[in-house]
Amino acid sequence: VIRPEPCCVCGSRIRFGKTAIKCCQCQLLLHTKCREQCPSLCTPRPHHHAWPREGVLADFAPSTPPLVPTLVVQCVTEVEARGLTETGLYRVPGAEQLVREWKRKLLRAGGALPALSSVTDIHVVCGVLKDFLRGLKEPLVTFSLHPAFLRAADIPDDSASDTALRHVVSKLPPANRDTLAFLMLHLLRVSHSPDCKMDVFNLSRVFGPTLVGHSSANPTPLAVMEDTPRQCKVVARLLSLPPDFWRGFVETEQENLVPM
Description:
- By secondary structure, the chain is mainly alpha-helical.
- Among the domains are: 1-36; 57-68 and 81-89 and 130-250, Rho GTPase activation protein (Phosphatidylinositol 3-kinase, Chain A).
- Helix content is 47%, strand content 4%.
- It has nine helices and four strands; from the N terminus they run E-E-E-E-H-H-H-H-H-H-H-H-H.
- It has helices at 70-82, 96-109, 122-134, 146-154, 158-170, 174-191, 200-212, 221-240, 243-250, and strands spanning 5-6, 13-14, 20-22, 29-31.
- Strands 1-2 form a two-stranded antiparallel sheet. A two-stranded antiparallel ribbon has the order 3-4.
- A hairpin with a 6-residue loop joins strand 1 (5-6) and strand 2.
- Helix 1 runs parallel beside helix 6 (174-191), helix 4 crosses helix 8 (221-240) and helix 6 (174-191) crosses helix 9 (243-250).
- Residues 55-246 form the Rho-GAP domain.
- GO terms for molecular function: GTPase activator activity; metal ion binding.
């Protein structure tokens, strides 16, 4: 082993210089001592199910609409099942190590995700979702459309701003558009829960940097400073759009969003 990687059987890291076993078909990597616990049969994983460690959103999306990654659907489903009574949902951080471990576990699993019901702290599930979105190679609104989103949100007239935002949303890549719609409907449900105490303003502060980001992968310090309040403004304006607008993107094939 040159670069330390986790064992696919026990999950602990295989250290530098140690001997390991790697399958030449499915690329499964494990300690030599874990060989007996390894499944005897191997099925090469189809390419479209193998998720990258990082990528653009479309790399994680399914092949049939709505194009919302299974990881996003499963996190949101779990949060809505048992998190809508939690104060500070998405604002209170989950344990950083658990967030990293579960994100790695979900990405390694590809399309067949392990159940998140075993995660005791719902804030860890929220952390996994935020960390996944932050880890994309470009934000959900994309680098190319970033300036258009900022301009649309800056329009003083609410009606004109809404019209401009609807137009920009429709220009997003399908996977980005569907996932944004799915998340907006979810965040609206969170904002309507009195127990969460997370109104649109609070949610926009949390998700502005995550969903809107910057217009390039390496923004200047000045761009970071100027973008931050405008990112929040974009998310707040998006959350002010009527739910029916967002439902139009995801409810045509709603049954596909039920995680297996």
